[in-house]
Amino acid sequence: MKRIGILTSGGDCQALNAAMRGVVKGLSTSGDTLEIYGFYDGYKGLIYGNYRYLTAQDFSGILTKGGTILGTSRQPFKQMRVPDENGLDKVEAMKHTYHKLNLDCLVILGGNGTQKTANLLREEGLNILHLPKTIDNDIWGTDITFGFQSALNIATHTIDCIHTTAASHNRVFIVEVMGHKVGWLPLHAGIAGGADIILIPEIPYDIEKVVEAVNRRTRQGKGFTILAVAEGAISVENAKLSKKEFKEMVNTSKYPSVSYDVADQIAQKTGCEVRVTVPGHMQRGGSPCAFDRVLCTQLGAAAAQAIEDKDYGYMIAMVNGQTTRVPLSEAAGRLKTVDPDCQLVQEAKKVGICFGD
């Protein structure tokens, strides 16, 4: 008999259901009697004991279904040691639920914040496995996270669609791509979509260089320019501010996001007509792409094998095309950022893409 808990935490993405399915199908081939308990709305379900017993039927037909059948919520890691409004110790409550169900293992699907709490529970003595989910692809220790490729396809398609209207009207178009702290998604989408300018958090931009790139295309007789701008893109000037100063600046800004600030400055300095498109949560929606379905099946099967081996305390990662077990103690709290000098950035610059630096 194996008793397994499973939950999805943090932002959603297209392939959460596919990953859960991979775990359960992988365990189902072991021959052992299996009990699966799904916790609703991420760690909230674990804290307040909101769960239900799941059968194999619950995981049938969800490979192509986006979102998560268990629901999700954001439970900030910094607040995990802080009692709730009723004085409840969240960590002790999660441990209580785990032991009440006599779980052999808790499988947790989520991103960086989720992973830090997973590691906390490991330190508290629970058997934990983590599967790396995020459209940002910013989890250290794995080459790729599930959700990234599906979001990339949507962001790239958005840029593709913008090209026709930008060319028709001779406009400058900014497509704001998700990526608050890291720029993997706008970097890849910008290259794949043929953007002329890519702005990411890791490379603070000089607006004058951005403007010059727009003017250069105009002088070359190209009537439009496409920018892929990360939601967390930052100017050289703002990059010098302290966290407190930057937060105050954002809170008092007249612009809803950095893309509108960049658009306004380009319009003023070039006289071009500028439009901003924000696909937003569309990047998280829809069905998982084929790549993510395969990836999640691999990660799920690898997690099932780790459970059979009774080998806990790991993130199931993909490294050099192979699934592997990375200790949570090594991965938790570490962010995988874009190296401004990496080969991909340098090759993008080689083909003429401007990064504003």
Provide a descriptive summary of the structure in words.
- This protein has 357 residues and is an alpha/beta fold.
- It has 13 helices and 11 strands.
- The chain has helices spanning 16-28, 43-48, 90-100, 112-123, 148-169, 184-192, 207-219, 236-239, 243-252, 258-270, 290-308, 328-331, 343-350; strands at residues 2-8, 34-39, 51-54, 105-110, 128-132, 172-177, 197-199, 225-230, 274-277, 314-319, 322-327.
- The strands form 2 sheets. A 7-stranded mixed sheet has the order 3-2-1-4-5-10-11, with helices on both faces. A 4-stranded parallel sheet has the order 7-8-6-9, sandwiched between helices.
- Helix 1 (16-28) packs across helix 11 (290-308), helix 5 crosses helix 6 (184-192) and helix 7 (207-219) crosses helix 10 (258-270).
- The protein is elongated, with a radius of gyration of 22 Å.
- The chain starts with a strand and ends in a 7-residue tail after the last helix.
